[in-house]
Amino acid sequence: MTTDLLTNAPEVEAPVFPPRPPRQGRPTPHISSMDEYKKMYEQSIADPATFFGKMAQDLLTWFKPFGKVTFGSFKEGNVSWFLDGQVNACYNCVDRHALANPDKIAIIWEADEPNQHVSISYGTVLAEVSRLANVLKKYGVRKGDTVAIYMPMVPEAVYAMLACARIGAVHSVVFAGFSADALRDRMLDAKCKILITADQGKRGGKTIQLKKIADEALAECPSVHTVIVFQRTGDAAVPFHPPRDVWWHDETMNQRPYCPCEPMNSEDPLFMLYTSGSTGKPKGVLHTTAGYLLGVTATTKYIFDLHEDDVHGCMADVGWITGHSYIVYGPLANGVTTILFESIPTYPNAGRYWELVDKHKVTSFYTAPTAIRALRRLGDEHLQPYNLDTLRVLGSVGEPINPEAWMWYYKVVGRERCAIVDTYWQTETGSIIITPLPGATPSKPGSATLPFFGVDVAVLDPQTGKELVGTGVTGVLAVRSSFPSIARSIYDNHERYMDTYLKPYIGYYFTGDGVTRDKDGYYWIRGRVELDVINVSGHRMSTAEIESALVQHAACAEAAVVGIPDELTGQAIVCFCTLKTHTAPQATDQTLLAALTSQVRSHIGPFATPKRIVVTPDLPKTRSGKIMRRILRKVAAGDVGEEDVLNEDVLRLKLGDLTTLADPGVVAALVKRVATSQ
Ligand code: PRX
Prior knowledge:
The structure is a single chain. The protein has 678 residues and is of the alpha/beta class. The chain contains 19 helices and 30 strands. Strands 12-11-8-6-7-14-15-23 form an eight-stranded mixed β-sheet, sandwiched between helices. It has a seven-stranded mixed β-sheet with strand order 5-4-17-16-18-19-20, with helices on both faces. The two termini are 32 Å apart. The relative contact order is 0.11. The site of adenosine-5'-monophosphate-propyl ester has 22 residues, from helix 10, strand 20, strand 24 and strand 25. This is Acetyl-coenzyme A synthetase. Belongs to the ATP-dependent AMP-binding enzyme family.
């Protein structure tokens, strides 16, 4: 394991911001003191069965009560919650609110163009979801089948997820920024027979050719027999191939607007979502019904401090876990209004988020540090025209938030009256696991602070696996015992699940992140401990995926990809490529560099665009042929200059031990290439 991220972890000194008292006319926070948090947290760890048993009864509606609350362990890899209970996620997110209050607004869809939005009631969601559920049944989808969803940010994306949940089908949402190859691999892996997609998507004034991309993917997925196509733009030039392709509007129009909910066992799968790991092959993280639903319902309620009339604005895409948990399942299970935002924060200008907050009276707002940094850079004047008075909670997710961005969020957006919640979690944890609670937790800019209920956090020595107890320690972040929303498996590959998360440190769930526990017991996330997973603008990807895209280019012999620090995006992608000998003269050829870039974009998606590609005669390798990424990362980040290469001692100081390098001369050549290529 590469642990240089963890050595020399800086002493953490930070100002402390006590929770803001509720303003006149605002609700009292659900958890309103540290004592209350501590008491509940201790109960949740000491007796999780009683704590979560009660919470599951209070927050969810069950078709059949559960028996044993929790069973299994990380050691055995058989974690289960709320055994033998029967529940339906769609019923909890839609029906129970629609039956009580059909006119209450469930979703506000803010379209790409700022003057267009639509408010959709719980009653309408119930009817639309039911119609689509009946269409899915008509095309043979049954409980346990997997349905692929490749949709833009339109309400129909949410209907598609909920329609699957309603009939017990497992949805596999593929982010609409993924390429045809990525979509194909995910549909094949999940053995999907049905795809739900749209003609085109709109984002920041641009059109995304979803159906065309889907068709390319489908050409190599013969098992997909039906493609349901929603018309987002209605462009007549979009390809359509009956009988495989059917129009969403034609099909739903003919279905009854009610469909009964399938009673699901608590441990039946609800969805899978692919995420990047340390190999090139993405893994389908599998979440089950009751545990996931309880996790997101409870975290949304307590962390965003949701009350009956609140409007929750999570700016993520439903194609990522943040969208699943905090646009769809969490807010809807709580019966509040959730915002679905089709556009980007800078379209048509950098005031877009704030216009949205003002117009829809958003009470809790959730975005990523990369967006906060970009907006901060564009200037405070973009906030001036808007009234942000309704905001109470501002959330951050996806990567560490630097203190400067935190302060800007707190002062300029929150006007020093809102709680900032820096929420740490992962696709695999399903819901937030380390976070402040508004109303209770004093915050420190840059720290995700303290664990959520039921999350028994441990800091381990990466080498020995021993627990580092007490305060002022840095190691890898692990969890000691299961909590309801933790992923149960990797689709069709339980062994990989065990190997990735549960076997590195027996008895613990291993997050893959480094962490410091400071003198007050607060947690500071230090990023991934392995260098083969990188985080660009909160998007997690594996270096192996990008490398495998590059080596598929005819000119590329070998590729090594590293993440370097980037002020805006957190990390940025730098690729080192060696060329096949017959192509060597083209090494600095711009056409070649452009071709390699587009190779990555078309194999993964535009969000994986490299910041820089360096063509080099050789890569630094050990005698056994292993690429030394540590060296590449430092050279790429500009930590080593051309003059440093001349002095062995300086080089050792900057790059560490180089004696294992097969050819020490390679470093000088690399530094030169980086200095001369742009
Ligand atoms: O490295 C951590 C980082 O994002 C990883 C999880 O990525 P993903 O599964 O794509 O989910 C992203 C949204 C939950 C983590 O292993 N990460 C996430 N939130 C934070 C964070 N790093 C620091 N602080 C956070 N608040």
